[in-house]
């Protein structure tokens, strides 16, 4: 069996692309660099939209990136079922691209916050969380200034009743509604979260946990099973 | 050459922590008589040509798709003057 | 805007020809901070009066900031007393020093101040401080891999501290985070002496292969001079408008801002763009544009290369089309670099810049004329031997003597203090004091994880990075580097010689206890006015102390920065040498974390 | 109850990286005819009382000391309507 190929997207200003690629390799998959200006998904099996400050996060985080040529390919592919995950800036881009509902706004504290964050896995029925236990509590780093999840009351109600909240903060760091740290789309192939699984995959560096491996392990499991 | 202004504000039901922080700071700084503050964005868009209806329509599209996130924000477009 | 445009067009260009024809025209050298004898030397060098543009170049290049005219005679000791070090690949005199860290790898690091701008506009001042030091590191051919910041503020509860401190921290955080550089350490110290003169010292460390070092040099006649990055605007050129208006009796130049605004996104693009340019081997020489902008880059590149350069200033891309040549020369617009490129490599160079959305423009050519020649509207406005501006600045042996109260200050020992009655209360008070309390409220605003190479960061005494994965495609190594910055203005005030040594010793220890072997030193010397003999004494003593200590410990100084004039009226800050030490650890897995890591371990006190 | 608007923009000579990034993105997004964009802030200040001269004077002071950073920004105050 050839290794699963996970695309890692680089926009101008993307920062965590090397880290995401390393995490993909750590679980035995192949990391395929995808460039924002190409109309080419290179036939990957899944896509990781890493964090950073794409286009400086000027205007609104993710607002400019969502118009990239690559996104013109990615948006229909995601709608058609391609597994896609966005972390931090990647989550913001997925919301701006309307692949996920709601929006991420300025932290309630008005400060950027970098810390190790306890998070509960609320939903394992997604392409990216199948390797976790339902309700498992994990530690992942967060580092963002605009991570406060907001959505209309209707949207929130639909997220909750549909089981679309994937991660919830234990100790809300940014004022997110319903302590939401991550969500999925209806089909479960698209997931966005503010915490950074790619910074929690090795003992030596990053957060004092390797819980992030679960995300990368999940996609592998998912791809092998299908 | 004309200038078009696009104002973008958070929808009223969305929490505005920046505006709140300012409103809370005001009494401490000796300002009274303010019941609320909301903070939004103002864009000054310089057009190469005149601000005719076609140009304004372009700016409206720009506001709708790029300058504002209509999930959480409202916008308004007007010619300066 | 249009008014200024018309105003500008009324200007007559002060060409070399015109300068020769009007030898007695008074020039505003004093307004630009130049002394009469310095101005006379310029005239002697040129054999005529300088043009406005030439005066702009000499005045910035001969400023204290760029020429180190008051500190040079003392800083020499870092070289003359330097211990033998096989690790030193590039020493003082370049944008940053480079040390060999083994297995074919090299590290480059440097600390620099942005004190005054951070007082005027804390956010932008601190942000552009980070931006500047990162470009220094980039210009050595390295990938910047981490930053640190050493900060000093007035009393924590002072009104002005409430203005300055949040802005400074936000500025460092927003700029550094946006570049994707982990912040792995630094200092935050409060003392009333810094109230009107906060210190913002930023350190950057970069990594490169030993054989990839780039230098600021423009060799090879016919090679092209490329300006790339942000366009040039009226940033930080308050002084230059004096020139433009005073020379030409023209009031139309609106007041120019002294504040520089940073664009971290452009800088991030510049980093990636530069690394790709290096990898493609299309850069012969490179220099960042910091203080003194185009003046500094052109004179230094030319002076260190074949010796000559022709530049057409009309080709410099402008953000504000009304800028005069004098202003272009002095602009401190951020996020700009200058490269020397073989003509045959220009297409490849431009293609890489385009890929990264970085504007790039050929503005000139290397020559063997021994002259830096610049034109504007077809007229020659600068024609100078570049070395006279870059290297042959004035050198001062400033008088110094021990401060009048120094003996009394030292005689006033803690013996006089009342013994605290309640130790518990005293301890709690100490723990709660701003200088000892947790700094997490600062460090939590800095990204310490990005790039996933951070082995140690806050609260460890030294930051540590693994290096094997810091550059794409490099062969694996278990090695890592550790860094710490330290300084204590109160010790240095009591005894600047010992105070500087203590700063080094502390940084050295912090690196050593992480498990790394200290290798090299950088320093930022923050002092009051060098024209005050008592301050100058503090400076001379601190440098002497640091140089002696470096020799004793066997670690060379590879570079640094001097910041003078940190004073309000006649009151100077405490002399504050901030010292950074870089060390190497053979196996990062063997790092020693700070704190009691497990129960049951013995606690041993070492030293006395 | 009245609403006063405070517009805060970077001074014209100060670099506006946000506005520049937007302006550079526009052609790629299919918008043409825009020569420049500048981004600033818009504050909506709700007064408890009427927007008389005294109240406006207060808001101006507020803009000067808190809402704008006059080292790099200009502001303007007006009653909405
Ligand atoms: N305190 C210092 N210790 C050691 N070297 C210093 C010190 N201050 C300046 N230098 C060195 O002097 C040289 C000139 O300074 P430089 O960094 O080029 O100035 P700038 O960056 O402001 O143009 C550099 O090599 C620098 O490392």
From TrEMBL, chain A:
GO cellular component: cytoplasm
Reaction(s) this enzyme catalyzes, per UniProt: L-glutamine + H2O = L-glutamate + NH4(+); N(2)-formyl-N(1)-(5-phospho-beta-D-ribosyl)glycinamide + L-glutamine + ATP + H2O = 2-formamido-N(1)-(5-O-phospho-beta-D-ribosyl)acetamidine + L-glutamate + ADP + phosphate + H(+)
InterPro entries: Class_I_gatase-like, PRibForGlyAmidine_synth_PurQ
EC id: 6.3.5.3, 3.5.1.2
The entry's keywords: ATP-binding, Cytoplasm, Glutamine amidotransferase, Hydrolase, Ligase, Nucleotide-binding, Purine biosynthesis
CDD domains: GATase1_FGAR_AT
Domain of life of the source: Bacteria
Family matches, as PROSITE patterns: GATASE_TYPE_1
Record's subcellular location: Cytoplasm
Pathway: Purine metabolism; IMP biosynthesis via de novo pathway; 5-amino-1-(5-phospho-D-ribosyl)imidazole from N(2)-formyl-N(1)-(5-phospho-D-ribosyl)glycinamide: step 1/2
Gene3D superfamilies, alphabetized: 3.40.50.880
Family annotation (SUPFAM superfamilies): Class I glutamine amidotransferase-like
Positions annotated as active site in the UniProt record: 88, 196, 198
GO biological process, one term: 'de novo' IMP biosynthetic process
Quaternary structure, from the entry: Part of the FGAM synthase complex composed of 1 PurL, 1 PurQ and 2 PurS subunits.
HAMAP family: PurQ
Protein task: Part of the phosphoribosylformylglycinamidine synthase complex involved in the purines biosynthetic pathway. Catalyzes the ATP-dependent conversion of formylglycinamide ribonucleotide (FGAR) and glutamine to yield formylglycinamidine ribonucleotide (FGAM) and glutamate. The FGAM synthase complex is composed of three subunits. PurQ produces an ammonia molecule by converting glutamine to glutamate. PurL transfers the ammonia molecule to FGAR to form FGAM in an ATP-dependent manner.
NCBIfam families, alphabetized: FGAM_synth_I, PRK03619.1
Listed name of the protein: Phosphoribosylformylglycinamidine synthase subunit PurQ
Provenance organism: Nonomuraea solani
Classification lineage: Bacteria, Bacillati, Actinomycetota, Actinomycetes, Streptosporangiales
From TrEMBL, chains B, D:
GO function terms (MF aspect): ATP binding; phosphoribosylformylglycinamidine synthase activity
Pathway connected to this protein: Purine metabolism; IMP biosynthesis via de novo pathway; 5-amino-1-(5-phospho-D-ribosyl)imidazole from N(2)-formyl-N(1)-(5-phospho-D-ribosyl)glycinamide: step 1/2
Organism: Nonomuraea solani
Similarity comment text for this entry: Belongs to the PurS family.
Function: Part of the phosphoribosylformylglycinamidine synthase complex involved in the purines biosynthetic pathway. Catalyzes the ATP-dependent conversion of formylglycinamide ribonucleotide (FGAR) and glutamine to yield formylglycinamidine ribonucleotide (FGAM) and glutamate. The FGAM synthase complex is composed of three subunits. PurQ produces an ammonia molecule by converting glutamine to glutamate. PurL transfers the ammonia molecule to FGAR to form FGAM in an ATP-dependent manner.
Entry keywords, A to Z: ATP-binding, Cytoplasm, Ligase, Nucleotide-binding, Purine biosynthesis
Gene Ontology, cellular component aspect: cytoplasm
EC nos: 6.3.5.3
Highest taxon above the source species: Bacteria
A Pfam cross-reference name: PurS
Cellular compartment(s): Cytoplasm
Catalysed conversion reaction: N(2)-formyl-N(1)-(5-phospho-beta-D-ribosyl)glycinamide + L-glutamine + ATP + H2O = 2-formamido-N(1)-(5-O-phospho-beta-D-ribosyl)acetamidine + L-glutamate + ADP + phosphate + H(+)
EC top class named in words: ligase
Subunit structure: Part of the FGAM synthase complex composed of 1 PurL, 1 PurQ and 2 PurS subunits.
Name of protein: Phosphoribosylformylglycinamidine synthase subunit PurS
Lineage: Bacteria, Bacillati, Actinomycetota, Actinomycetes, Streptosporangiales
GO BP: any one term: 'de novo' IMP biosynthetic process
HAMAP family: PurS (MF_01926)
């Amino acid at each position: 069996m050839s290794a699963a190929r996970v695309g890692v997207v680089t926009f101008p200003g993307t920062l965590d692309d090397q880290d995401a690629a390393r995490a993909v390799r750590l679980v035995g998959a192949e990391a395929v660099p995808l460039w924002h200006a190409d109309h080419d998904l290179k036939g990957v099996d899944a896509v990781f939209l890493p964090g950073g400050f794409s286009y400086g996060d000027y205007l609104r985080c993710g607002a400019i990136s969502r118009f990239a040529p690559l996104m013109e390919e990615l948006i229909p592919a995601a709608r058609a079922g391609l597994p896609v995950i966005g972390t931090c800036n990647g989550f913001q881009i997925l919301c701006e691209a309307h692949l996920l509902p709601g929006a991420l706004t300025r932290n309630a504290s008005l400060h950027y916050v970098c810390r190790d964050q306890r998070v509960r896995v609320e939903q394992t029925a997604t392409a990216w969380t199948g390797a976790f236990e339902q309700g498992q509590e994990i530690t992942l780093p967060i580092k963002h200034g605009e991570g406060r999840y907001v959505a209309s009351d209707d949207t929130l109600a639909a997220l909750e009743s549909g089981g679309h909240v994937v991660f919830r903060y234990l100790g809300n760091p940014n004022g997110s509604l319903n302590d939401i740290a991550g969500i999925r789309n209806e089909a479960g192939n698209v997931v966005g979260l503010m915490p950074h699984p790619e910074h929690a995959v090795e003992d030596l560096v990053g957060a004092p946990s390797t819980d992030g491996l679960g995300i990368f392990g999940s996609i592998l499991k998912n791809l092998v099973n299908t | 050459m004309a200038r078009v202004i696009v104002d973008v504000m958070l929808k009223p039901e969305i929490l505005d922590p920046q505006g709140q922080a300012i409103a809370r700071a005001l009494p401490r700084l000796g300002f009274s008589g303010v019941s609320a503050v909301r903070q939004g964005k103002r864009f000054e868009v310089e057009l190469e040509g005149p601000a005719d209806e076609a140009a304004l329509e372009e700016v409206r599209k720009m506001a709708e798709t790029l300058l504002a996130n209509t999930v959480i924000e409202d916008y308004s477009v007007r010619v300066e003057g | 805007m249009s008014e200024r445009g018309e105003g500008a067009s009324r200007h007559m260009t002060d060409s070399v020809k015109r300068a020769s024809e009007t030898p007695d025209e008074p020039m505003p050298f004093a307004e630009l901070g130049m002394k009469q004898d310095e101005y006379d030397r310029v005239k002697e060098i040129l054999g005529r009066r300088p043009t406005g543009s030439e005066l702009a170049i000499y005045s910035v290049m001969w400023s204290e900031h760029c020429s180190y005219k008051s500190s040079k005679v003392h800083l020499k000791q870092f070289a003359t007393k330097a211990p033998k070090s096989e690790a030193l690949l590039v020493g003082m005199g370049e944008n940053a020093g480079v040390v060999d860290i083994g297995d074919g790898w090299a590290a480059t690091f440097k600390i620099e101040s942005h004190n005054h701008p951070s007082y005027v506009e804390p956010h932008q001042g601190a942000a552009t401080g980070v931006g500047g030091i990162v470009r220094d590191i980039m210009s050595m051919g390295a990938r910047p891999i981490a930053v640190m910041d050493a900060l000093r503020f007035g009393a924590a509860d002072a009104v002005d501290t409430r203005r300055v401190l949040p802005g400074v921290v936000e500025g460092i955080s927003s700029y550094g985070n946006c570049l994707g550089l982990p912040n792995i350490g630094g200092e935050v110290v409060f003392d009333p002496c810094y109230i009107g003169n906060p210190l913002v010292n930023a350190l950057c460390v970069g990594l490169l292969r030993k054989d990839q070092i780039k230098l600021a040099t423009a060799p090879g006649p016919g090679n092209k001079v490329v300006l790339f990055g942000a366009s040039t605007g009226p940033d930080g050129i308050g002084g230059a408008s004096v020139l433009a208006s005073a020379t030409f009796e023209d009031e139309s130049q609106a007041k120019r801002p002294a504040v520089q605004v940073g664009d971290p996104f452009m800088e991030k693009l510049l980093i990636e763009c530069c690394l790709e340019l290096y990898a493609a081997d299309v850069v012969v020489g490179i220099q960042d544009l910091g203080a003194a902008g185009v003046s500094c880059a052109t004179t230094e590149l030319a002076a260190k290369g074949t010796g000559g350069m022709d530049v057409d200033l009309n080709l410099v891309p402008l953000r504000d089309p009304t800028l005069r040549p004098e202003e272009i020369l002095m602009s401190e617009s951020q996020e700009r670099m200058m490269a020397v490129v073989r003509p045959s490599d220009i297409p490849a160079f431009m293609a890489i810049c385009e890929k990264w959305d970085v504007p790039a423009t050929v503005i000139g050519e290397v020559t063997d004329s021994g002259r830096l020649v610049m034109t504007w509207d077809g007229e020659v406005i600068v024609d100078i031997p570049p070395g006279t501006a870059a290297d042959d600045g004035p050198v001062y042996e400033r008088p110094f003597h021990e401060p009048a109260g120094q003996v009394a200050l030292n005689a006033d020992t803690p013996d006089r203090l009342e013994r605290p009655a309640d130790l518990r209360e005293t301890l709690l008070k100490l723990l709660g004091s701003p200088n000892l309390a947790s700094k997490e409220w600062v460090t939590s605003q800095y990204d310490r994880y990005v790039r996933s190479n951070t082995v140690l960061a806050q609260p460890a005494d030294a930051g540590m990075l693994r290096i094997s994965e810091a550059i794409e495609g490099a062969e694996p190594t278990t090695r890592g580097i550790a860094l710490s910055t330290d300084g204590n203005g109160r010790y240095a005030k009591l005894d600047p010689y010992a105070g500087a040594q203590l700063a080094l010793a502390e940084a050295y220890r912090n690196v050593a206890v992480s498990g790394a072997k200290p290798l090299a030193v950088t320093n930022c010397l923050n002092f009051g006015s060098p024209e005050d003999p008592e301050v100058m004494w503090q400076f001379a003593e601190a440098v002497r102390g640091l140089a002696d200590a470096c020799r004793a410990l066997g670690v060379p100084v590879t570079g640094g920065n001097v910041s003078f004039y940190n004073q309000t009226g006649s009151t100077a800050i405490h002399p504050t040498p901030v010292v950074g030490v870089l060390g190497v650890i053979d196996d990062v897995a063997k790092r020693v974390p700070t704190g009691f890591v497990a129960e049951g371990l013995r606690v041993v006190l070492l030293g006395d």
